[in-house]
Amino acid sequence: MPSMTEHDERIMTSVQQELGHLINDEYAIRVLRAIIEKMKKVEDSFEHIKQCHQEAKAYIPDDQKYEENYWVAAYILYTNQEDLKYLFKDFDELDSIRQELSKLWDEINELNQKKEKLEERIEKLQDKLQSLHNNKENKVVKYLLYETDKCEKDLEDMIEIHHKKSERYFYLNNKLYYHLLPEIIKRAEQLIAS
After folding, report:
1. What is the pLDDT, as a whole number, of residue 113?
2. Are residues 118 and 33 in the same domain?
3. Which of 95, 131, 158, 192 would bridge with 38, disulfide CB 3.0–4.6 Å?
4. pLDDT for position 45
5. How many other C-beta atoms lie within 10 A of the C-beta of residue 100?
6. Phi first, then psi: what are they for 166, rounded to 5°?
7. Per residue in 44-63, is it b (16+ CB within 10 Å) or e — as a string?
8. Distances from the Cα of 79 to the Cαs of 18, 45, 99, in angstroms?
9. Which one of 10, 45, 79 terminates a domain?
10. Cα distance from N-terminal residue to C-terminal residue, the chain
11. Among 51, 37, 18, 20, CA closest to 185
12. 163 shares a domain with 123
């Protein structure tokens, strides 16, 4: 029988790690909070929640940093993962969106810096042109006009790219906070009610 005890301990440790992962995920924590709120509303009338609460106690570590309800909510998600594959798929999508948002944010900031440098360059070129009295036959003036046109075209292109990346950023941000996350929370709440 000692091997059965070791097996049980490995399973307990594995489940405990999965529960901890759910509790520490910044988006899952919102779902867990919704489950906890729902649990508080219906806990007295649903035997299922009481049973889950008792079962989850075996997996709650002694040195827990979260209150017991988070562990119970994570246990409910964990024990229903077969029925809720779509919910965990949504968590993956959340993570993917979060990564893309971070990348877009960095790209937008980089574009802003390049845009500022181009604007400064254009301003300096225009100042030089004004000081040369726009004599279009002068080779320096021709070069400055060419360089100014080129910088202005680059700036227009950069503004267009910036606009597209900003649109994508705001689309994903809205999808994350106004569609996907509320849908996950709604599904989690339905799990408690069942």
Report:
1. 92
2. no
3. 192
4. 53
5. 14
6. -65, -40
7. eebeebeebbeebeebbeee
8. 11, 21, 28
9. 79
10. 37
11. 37
12. yes
Q: What is the pLDDT along the chain (194 residues), one digit of tens a residue?
A: 445 577 677 777 888 888 888 888 887 888 888 888 777 766 555 677 778 888 888 888 887 777 888 888 888 878 877 766 776 677 778 888 888 989 999 999 998 998 899 899 888 888 887 777 666 667 777 788 888 889 889 889 988 998 998 998 888 888 887 877 887 777 777 766 65
Place of tokens 């726009």: 134
C-alpha to C-alpha distances, 122 to 54, 109, 169, nearest whole angstrom: 70, 20, 28
Enclosing domain of residue 109: 86-193
**Domain shared by 57 and 32, yes or no:** yes
Say if residues 108 and 89 touch (Cβ distance below 8 Å). Answer: no
> Distances in Å between the alpha carbon of 188 and those of 20, 122, 183?
18, 55, 9
User: Where among 79, 112, 128 does a domain terminate?
Assistant: 79
